[in-house]
Amino acid sequence: MIDGYLNSPFVPVMFGQTDFVKNFSDAGVIIPIRAIIASKQWYDGLSDAERATVNDAVAKANAATQAWLDKASVVALTTLEDAGVTVQRLSEEEKEAFRELSQPVYRSGLLPEADVETWLAVANKTR
Fold first, then answer.
1. Integer-rounded Cα radius of gyration of the chain
2. How many Cα atoms are found within 13 Å in the side-chain-facing hemisphere of 105?
3. What is the pLDDT of residue 2?
4. What is the Cα–Cα distance from 34 to 66, expressed in whole angstroms?
5. What is the pLDDT of residues 76-116, one digit of tens each?
6. Among 18, 58, 92, 105, which residue's beta carbon has the most beta carbons within 10 A?
């Protein structure tokens, strides 16, 4: 039995889970990832000017994706509510408390410390 749900707001809608997901916490800790993947060998073989072009394109794509995601996330939360799911929208203080209370899990040994540091750096950069 699911008593609550912590995921991207898109997931229960996309996978038709709103018939059994009745509560959703919008903690902002699971963000849908949109990634650009390129070969390091290819990238390293580019000239400085070509790398600058790629870097600029990635920055523009990231900004456009974030703008889309900001709007789409609001729509996803509303769609959840329209489907009868209770959405808890956490304040920044509540989100920070969630982050602090989650810290022991990060360092529980489930992931190597280097991986934890990488993910924390990425998370902090996106806040």
1. 18
2. 5
3. 58
4. 9
5. 999 999 999 999 998 999 988 988 888 888 888 888 999 98
6. 18
Share of the chain above pLDDT 90, in %: 35
The first and second tokens of residue 109, run together, are: 């040994």
**Residues 6+ away with beta carbon under 8 Å from 74:** none
Helices (H) and strands (E) in the chain, counts: 5, 2
* pLDDT of the residue at 86: 92
Q: Which of 71, 80, 90, 66 is nearest to 14 (CA)?
A: 80
Q: What is the phi-psi region of residue 16: left when phi exceeds 0, alpha when psi lies from -120 to 50, beta otherwise?
A: left
User: 89-109 b/e with 16+ CB inside 10 Å = b?
Assistant: eeeeeebeeebeeeeeebeee
CB 17 within 8 A of CB 39: no
